[in-house]
Amino acid sequence: MRTQTHSSGERVVVGVDIGTTKICAVVASGDDVGRIHVRGVGVAPSDGLNRGVVVNIDKTVEAVQKAIGEAERAAGIETRSVVVGIAGDHIQSFQSRGVITVTGGEIDRDDVQRLLEDTKHVAMPADREILHVLPQEFIVDGQDGVADPIGMSGVRLEANVHIITGLVSAAKNIYRCIEKAGYAVDDIVLEPLASSLAVLHADEREVGVVLVDIGGGTTDIAIFEDKTIRHTAVVAVAGNKVTDDLRKGLGILHDQAERLKHEYGVALVDMVTEDTEIQIPGIGGRPDKAIGQSTLAQIIQPRLEEILEIVAIEIKRSGYGRHLSAGVVLTGGGALIPGTAELAAEILGLEARVGRPLGLDGGLVEEVDDPKYATGVGLVLHGLKTGADGGTSLLAAEPERTSEDTFELTESTGDGYDSDPDGLVNRIASRMRSWFDEL
What we know:
alpha/beta
């Protein structure tokens, strides 16, 4: 496997957000003291996906090559491997519990690894695969709330974990697109988890927060409490539905509807103080027509309300509705519509803010200071934390962790997609070690 380094010796990671409306590539590097610099950004329109799932390989490959190529030119490097995101309404999650007997009397790393393997022994359809296993807590001889069981004495070790699964075919198609574009896949990460790395403060994850990433094809939801992921969901109602409503309601083309949404869209009718007149080009030689901005808002608001009501259902289903003291953080392109945060606060009954990438120290920081880049930035942050900069660094010494990072992704299972199965096993083992470093 290959190592990717900058000329200065910094580790370089490339994150690729494969979205329904756009494919975004972000190149970032990390130095020895933990500073993160954005080296390059590339964006290409995406026509080969539907609701987060690849439906046209060739179009997706072309867009991936264009986005990564643009980021490469900006960064002045040649990329060989990437960290890629996965989303789509096929994503499902559930809680699981495992229990083992400790034979030596003292719990060691092998016991914990054996326990986490035990949690994966759940009945699943043949077309689904485990993407992530995220530990919630350990229980030693009935004593719960244990953060680090290693070194403790006990005979019975249990763990509660959050398991995230996806369709095998969806993940395989993402791998195939990246490989056909000429790159290797370092890691595949659930996109709402990546976004959370970029836009959430550590104290928000501790006191309880819900992340809502409103993309083009899907809305991703992740709930955190006590520094740990508690619930995830992906729903297939998002920004494209708003555009479709405008297109059908006004009788205009898709591109025209998208432009109107970005330039004049407002999430709340009450926010329109001056009803600006907007000229809409006629279709098929028909004369132009004019509408008021309030008319746009009357079309946009009901669809955003629907999206947020689905979010409210997921919050209720998670059982953590009373634990979200930090409220809701909105990100993704859909969060750019003025008034979305105010509407979310009204619908969900929580404080709301728009989340932009945090924790960047230099480079093209202003260029990625936008909710639509949250997933791409989160993917490179994940890669830098786990050492995914071309493969070999996954086996190198991990950077020092803080207690704020205890929700880090722990495992991507052996999924049969990687062309280097031995390397995959090594990466899994390394990720397990990195998790212990965080405890």
